[in-house]
Amino acid sequence: MKITTKGRYAIHILYDLAQNGTEHPVSVKEIAARQEISVKYTEQIISILNKSGCVKSSRGFQGGYQLTKPLEEYVIGDVLRLTEGSLAPVECLSTEENPCPKQHRCETILLWEKVDEAIRSVVDHVTLKDLVDWQAQEKRK
After folding, report:
1. Model-level pTM?
2. Which CATH code, of 1.10.10.10, 3.30.450.20, 3.40.50.150, 1.10.8.60, is assigned to 5-140?
3. What is the tens place of the pLDDT at every residue in 71-88?
């Protein structure tokens, strides 16, 4: 499993808004410049975040984007699923019901289930607040 730039950049964008958008909306151009992402790609990703309710937009001269909820409510796994779809390491685990005809005689399914569980145990227990706190701790070192 490989997280694409869309998933990684979505987290970067949310982190940027957590750092810079608490008092006023932040423009796409500002985010793109700080995160070194093209404006067009930033717009595409922020559109996904806006439609899902992760961010809100405001129009006008001082317009831009801001977060809609407290940092601890942004679970990284949810953001990745929003932008990436399933995070399952193999296709047969990507839906609730395993559609694979070999599922009852698959020699490797336990391995893939353990990999899937390990991924979820990290991304579903880390929040945007954790990322902000970790970065603050690193700066203090």
Report:
1. 0.90
2. 1.10.10.10
3. 999 999 999 999 999 998
